[in-house]
Design brief:
The structure is a homotrimer.
Chain A (H helix, E strand, L loop, with lengths): L1 H24 L6 H11 L16 H4 L1 H4 L9 E3 H11 L1 H8 L6 H5 L9 H15 L14 H5 L6 E3 L9 H5 L3 H8 L21 H6 L2 H5 L3 H8 L19 H5 L15 H7 L1 H13 L20 H6 E2 L2 E2 L15 H4 L5 H14 L5 H34 L37 H22 L3 H4 L5 H32 L1
Antiparallel strand pairs in A: 1-2, 3-4
Helix pairs in contact in A: 1-8, 5-6, 16-17, 20-21, 21-22, 21-24, 22-24
Chain lengths: ~500, ~500, ~500
């Protein structure tokens, strides 16, 4: 009897400790309503080119905030149990995923012991509950039973919703009801300000990626809306959270694995995933990580408790000065693509401090001297690529100014509004008509928008083939040679035509 | 004693139950001899261009039906135990693979309990045995001990074979001796009939892939037989089953994993594997599937018992109206490549019903409205790609008709028989001589045979980069620009040459 | 008491047995000092173009032998415990990796039983200790406690080092202090001699890869040192061992996995990893190997105890006539790239015996007849590719000899020393200025240095798409068509210019 009392007292102590922890370091520090209001206020909806395009049905799922309408096929008021009853048969996959998720098994969290890698979630849950209580969403004497259909598709604590009227596809603010800290961190990316205005405030970032999408001229202007919506399929992180934590499992462990980033961070103009996987880092993940690392461990304990012997995407990009957060832009320097405006300012304190932050990051496993040597190597290598690209740019601009591009005077239609014509413009990667873009335009567009970026990404992700022989430098040399060849061919032809004209007189 | 009797009676009841199950739903529904006879009757052997090419030694392994001869190096009559004795030393890898396989451990199946994911194999085995008994291949009072060397390389139940005379490399019909249901399902692909004859009967399918191979003009006509046989290395599913169930493990679980499809379904003109792996589906397989899903579970229980939270190749393509079968073509719509003959008939019931079947498939995890919205998006996106390709086709055809392709009038040899010349023909991907194909031919060949297909595959496998910026649309724009550029360059040159000729008169 | 005695006696017997084993088959057969001296004597340092380039800071880590200097930031004499105390905080990643490594847990090895796949390491350790004793590095009555900071960064057995004076980055010879057998085997690659001098002695090999690097003209001559050092990042195997056994885990199991090879063996001119992963072999590794094979097992027991049902990179390339060693060049035939000098000599016994050795390798899982048929197919397929490339070479050479390359007479600067100009030279993949390389140069350079090699690699790694439709043959056809097109375009233009000149007279 006495022992039971001691146990009970111990438990009470622990609960109080947890709660006090939640009270001091937890979600209450964030004013959810304020963050939410700002989130919606910032959201661009259809953006500044709204008049130029119409949403197609699938886009309601990429941007539910602006476009989602509940289906009218099912009417009536339902509670969570009824959802499950129907959807177990209608859409069993998502019901099973949810049933196995943490959301459906909150009590499991309450029973976790310190040995469990997910132990930290116990405190997290207490924190979330305390936060919900403080907002009056959860009764003072109540715990969350589970996070179920209603909570996300209606609103936390809702008992029933009208299927054809109230059904929501959750957005960032909906997830933020409980995950207010993560919501706040992720939204903080918008505060990023570049010292020489290399990018607009908050850009580039997950928090602004939908705005970046809809306010890209050729995206808005192109006629093929079903192709264009493919861009939305990555540029929706501003709208919702299941890009990294796939519904209806919503796993933290999933998002800690490099593959979670791969659907968006791959390919011709941002091959981060390929670069990582072929780097030593990725190889260690492949050979040791998949079998031996514990991805349930939170990032801050990855090395000490998670057995990590190499970094992952999340580990490096969530980290900043030893702390981990959903604000991923705090160490960004070269951003999306290398430009002179960045290259020429690397000695500015803004860039230097960020390089120092990187040295700290790398120094978790490398000597600071090694880290600095590598980061300097990467910077210089990027600049070497940039110089070649800039030289090619002059050649292409001159051809355009001289009116010598193939078909320039006979068959070069303007790109669709809001775009306007330019040599080697971004639009030419996604639109073509007649001789616009001409071959040399397109080559140059790929040079600056594919090859230079891959060169940079190969360097910063330490993938040797990525900036020497397969991608990067070797491809920049290819583009340079092609552009020079085309330049002299076009000018030779022009000279010959003039000569013949002369002779015809 | 009494308890033992109860147990015994229970076992007898179970056995009878199994047998009755086998009798009602099992392999006996299939007439093995009939299927086998049709299989061999349909088999094209060397096909209609047989006179144009000679088989090389390796091809006896890709198409044993037509080419295999037992080696003469080992003579004599051997039984299975003797095979193992020798081959344990000669070729230990395959002996070990077999020893660990289900084939070598049938008794293990008999002991499985319902909790085991492979429990279904117990009924399967009873079914197979019942089927073999009904055909007189297995004695009425006997069970299969194991499936050993003789059964596959001689014939089920054979005791010995003459190594230099009887040794067979198993074909579909050999595996079908036991796996008659799977054999029948797989052969049923040949029944596929397209409503507007977009493809020949049974094409395209695994069941006809050898025929498709040997009856492709350039395959038969090209001189480099060692290169050509590389095509056979995938186009042999019509001949044998170890393309998906690798010898000598012959695992069902293996074939359920996406990588099993990857050797053939990758690359420039059918990048299904790459598309899947970079899609959300593939990412969930990578992050959750590899660690947590049970691939021993049969496909129909993948969600409920196998823990799948995303589809695999097999899961989607084996499924049709809720049932799973080795007939993979029942939901095929765009087939190998998008063409106007398909695009213009999507409102035909044949295509509409298949889209409905896809909606059902996707609705295992998505709302039917989402599924329909996506499938419509994919269709429209494919058609947008097709339109660009068709416009380019006209330009290339016109150049050819005008005789303006580079070297067309001076150095354009005909392709080898049975091919005949055509602008941008398929042959130009595998054959080149002089100015055939010219650059613009080749560009167009890659446009329709690589880029348009990847555009389609990217869309249907929900890989955003696959149809927007890396592959698909962005590449189609590249090809279009190149073709326009080449068109105006060639015509400009032609005009100039004519002018000079005029001046020379 | 008696039982304890029996146990003790048993242990003594085992120890004596181990030692006797070590004495007969172990490291003592190798004269460490001699191998080490030769290693350093052979090492090229900066190589024959030393005057042309200056090392940059990061290169001290790729080639510590020549460039490494201890950091001056930390001064003083430290022992291993002090290293750990500091670095646990400074660079926790590497400390954790080491703490979990075999190096830090030698006693664990001493306790292994025969059932443990790592049991062989027990004998290995005894052998290493015996070897160290025989060299007087380890006292006769002592065992190694662990392999710690001092042993590698100071010298085996050192108690303390001066951080700013003595700190070493370990090279091959440092690892070889203990791993003398592996060191000797790896160094034996230098003994390779080609029968018709197709390659210089010991080339190509890991053991000479740094020399190959620094003595490549364009590497030494190019201005962009930060790009050039990217080549070092793979070409450092001659210098150190952590290319395959990543610091500070130094795992044998890691290096047995195919991904361990992937950082270097991928990409445009040696896509071995991609080829393997898409081959049947790689697919079996993916579907069975990752879950079921035991990579702790040494290679010689891979099939029997490790459960391998397909080969890995290491398994095939370490094996020679049934034995496994760190000399990977004993079955090399086509080496880096197919050339006539190899193709024309395949009937020489040197090549024939190596093919026989491959037949033996493949016969672990395939019939010798299959193996021979495949290897012959691969050879012939490679030669077919080579023939096309050689024909293209003539065309490009002729254009160069005729002075007809785009810009050849007006704007073709010489490449930097020590390179000299040549049509389609290797330098043109990494350097470009004005019209050098011209388009046709670059196309041809990619043909011989990318596409022909990938064709060969696709064949020998049995990846059908790698030598038919995606890479290899199909790309060689593309290059051939481009070169023919450019040839006739350039000649047509030249003829026209001459005609116009004629008219202008």
């Amino acid at each position: 009897m006495r022992e039971i009392n001691i146990l009970k007292n111990g438990l009470i102590f622990i609960v109080i400790f947890m709660m006090s922890f939640a009270a001091t370091a937890g979600s209450e520090d964030y004013d959810y309503e304020k963050i939410k209001d700002k989130y919606y206020a910032d959201h661009p909806g259809k953006g500044k080119y709204a008049d130029l395009w119409e949403a197609i049905p699938i886009q309601q799922y990429w941007n539910p905030i602006t476009f989602y309408e509940p289906p009218t096929s099912v009417k009536g008021e339902y509670n969570a149990a009824e959802c499950v009853t129907c959807h177990k048969n209608e859409t069993p996959g998502w019901v099973h995923a949810w049933k196995d998720s943490t959301h459906a098994n909150l009590d499991e969290l309450r029973g976790l012991t310190e040995e469990d890698p997910r132990f930290y979630k116990k405190a997290k849950l207490a924190e979330v509950e305390q936060h919900l209580r403080s907002r009056g969403v959860l009764a003072e004497d109540k715990n969350l039973d589970s996070v179920g259909c209603m909570d996300c598709h209606g609103g936390v604590g809702k008992e029933t919703i009208s299927h054809d009227k109230d059904l929501r596809m959750p957005d960032r603010a909906d997830c933020g009801q409980c995950h207010v800290q993560e919501f706040a961190e992720a939204e903080a990316e918008k505060e990023q300000k570049w010292p020489q205005d290399q990018w607009g405030e908050g850009h580039p970032s997950h928090a602004m990626d939908w705005k970046a999408n809809v306010e890209t001229g050729i995206w808005a202007g192109m006629e093929q809306r079903e192709v264009a919506q493919g861009c939305d399929m990555c540029h929706y992180q501003q709208n919702k959270c299941d890009g990294c934590h796939t519904r209806h499992t919503f796993s933290a462990a999933e998002a800690r694995k490099p593959e979670a980033c791969s659907t968006c961070h791959n390919g011709v103009d941002h091959n981060e995933f390929e670069g990582y996987m072929l780097s030593k880092h990725g190889v260690i993940y492949e050979t040791s990580g998949k079998a031996d690392w514990d991805f349930e461990v939170q990032l801050k304990d990855a090395i000490t408790k998670g057995n990590y012997t190499a970094p992952t995407c999340a580990w490096c990009h969530f980290e900043f000065e030893g702390e981990f957060s959903h604000n991923l832009v705090r160490k960004v320097r070269w951003a999306f693509n290398p430009t002179p405006a960045i290259a020429d300012n690397l000695d500015h304190p803004w860039f230097e401090k960020r390089q120092e932050a990187w040295v700290d990051t790398c120094s978790n496993c490398h000597s600071p001297r090694f880290a600095k040597a590598w980061l300097d190597t990467a910077d210089k290598g990027i600049i070497q690529g940039l110089e070649v690209e800039q030289e090619a740019k002059q050649i292409v601009q001159k051809l355009y100014d001289d009116g010598l591009m193939q078909g320039q005077s006979t068959n070069r239609p303007a790109p669709p509004a809001p775009e306007s014509d330019a040599p080697g413009g971004f639009f030419g990667l996604f639109w073509a008509k007649g001789n616009n873009p001409s071959l040399v335009d397109r080559i140059y567009a790929e040079m600056w928008e594919h090859d230079l970026i891959k060169h940079y990404k190969g360097l910063v992700h330490v993938n040797p083939g990525g900036f020497t022989y397969s991608e990067g430098w070797a491809r920049l040399m290819r583009r340079y040679a092609e552009i020079q060849n085309e330049d002299s061919r076009l000018r030779e032809m022009d000279a010959l035509k003039k000569k013949v004209e002369e002779l015809s007189k």
